[in-house]
Amino acid sequence: MKKFLGVVLCLGIMTTNTFALEGELGYFGGATPGTKIPTGIALAQDKFNFDDQYTLPYKEVIYLTGEPIVVTGTLDIRPGEVDLDSTSGDYKETYIIKAVSADKQTEISRTLTLDTIYVKNDLTNQITKSSEVSNWTEVVVADGTAYNLDADQSTFSKSIIEDYTPGVKYYSGDVFYNAVYTSGGDDDNATTLTVDSRVYGYDQAFAKSETQKRNITVDTGDNQYYIEETPMTTMSKELAYSGNEPIAISFAGNFKELIKGEGAITYNMLVAGDEVHPRDRSGAIYVADTKPSLEQLTMPFLENMIGHPAKSDVEKMYAMGIFDMHPLGFSEQQVVTRGEYVKMLVKALRIPLPNLDDRRNKNNAAKENPFKDLDTSHDLYVYAKAAFDAGLVIGGDINADDPLTREQMIVFNVRAIGLLRLGLGVVNPQTPFIDDNQISDYAKTSIYAATKIGIIPSTNGYIFPQKFVTYQDCAAFLNDFIDYLRYDLQKDYNQYIMM
């Protein structure tokens, strides 16, 4: 079948280096809207590179005086770079913060440079990082008093673990530091800020989020204050349709993606200064993306889908470049094959393609082929190999031409986002579906996990696990799956944690 849309809007060649994922909040309780998710147009450019420096809008709450003081400014990030082909390595990461309060009475200037070392575990596909301070300078001016960081007495330690699943990169870890400040030119007059923070985050094609849960103690020598604080950031792509108003125009409208971010800080001063009114001891601070990005998405005119209930779902698949067959040959009742669905997931999740052109000859390519039943010359091979490299499929027989069943689709989806563990440890998992007894044993765990996170199709209580997936079914199921990645996954990282 003739192809209609290329992969140019969806995929790039595999890269061996990636910038560190975490740190878009800066580790000091501030909030930013996050760094931009690249558009498909940007990724399609031959010279596309991720930025090696970012400047983000920034807000932070200062507690050194015993009252919460909000400062606004910028956070400059110079992230480190990880070589994914190496089992270990190191890099430097730098955070520069400059912010001032609305009344100009409080300001902060901070520079933190960390030496980070990492090690990769190929068995688990996880990277563990540890960071120590190589340079830390900071001055806080609050209520007319200058607090100067004593770098010799201060300590900072960070440890993060990143988990690379086929479609989502998750991370979590801890940050602990003691910041010792002297004020009034008296080295004996020290204020110590002790912070114990847990970090959670993820990064994927449609959204990314980071949340920190911080326990803060401020010790002035004469008084102690205690604060619970939760900063967060989320950057996401929102999909919307715009119809064209002129009658004499060749296309009725199109979908578009708006890429924007937002950050927030919630805080609760459980122990505050005497001058702080109880109603002012807790609050929420917000920071918005001032430069959202917009990308228009193209889609064909599907004459045979006019009035069809799956029309919008199918159009979204074309708009996102996931469906690529010529619209004149498209049939919503055609059954999707396993190989075609693997290709769809690779494109949707932006799993990087291997560069097969770099291979010296076909004999070497054949030796590296992990599949017994898929030749390297097959149109689907590059996608199957990308899925294999990412851990979405295993070697051996991929059965690319076999019809895709609903239970197989769910197994692929759960594996793609690395959440199979949610169905593990359950003895004889019983799903809520009437036809549970028709689910294959190998798929029970994945379907149980999919039920818990709400990415599973159901028809009046039935799942029809052995039913073949048609293109109209596939469009609806993939839309629900992608909406989970766009909108619902982030709720687990910010709304639920901040409540």
Structure description:
The two termini are 51 Å apart. This protein is an alpha+beta fold. The strands form two sheets. Strands 2, 3, 5, 6, 7, 8, 9, 10, 11, 12, 13, 14, 15 and 16 form a 14-stranded antiparallel beta sheet that branches. The chain has a two-stranded antiparallel sheet with strand order 1-4. The longest helix has 21 residues, at 471-491. 39% of the residues are buried. The chain is 18% helix and 37% strand.
Offer a concise description of the structure.
The two termini are 51 Å apart. It contains 9 helices and 16 strands.
Q: Could you say which structural class the secondary elements and strand pairing correspond to?
A: alpha+beta
Q: Could you describe the largest sheet, including whether it forms a barrel? A: 14 strands, antiparallel
Distance between the termini: 51 Å
Q: Stretches where pLDDT falls below 50 for ≥5 residues?
A: 1-16
**Number of H/I helices:** 9
- What would you call the shape? elongated
Using DSSP, what is the number of strands?
Answer: 16
Helix content: 10-25%
Mean pLDDT: 90
**Rg computed from alpha carbons, rounded to a whole number of angstroms:** 26 Å
Strand content: 35-45%
H/E series: EHEEEEEEEEEEEEEEEHHHHHHHH
List the main descriptive attributes of the protein structure presented here.
499 residues, alpha+beta, 9 helices, 18% helix
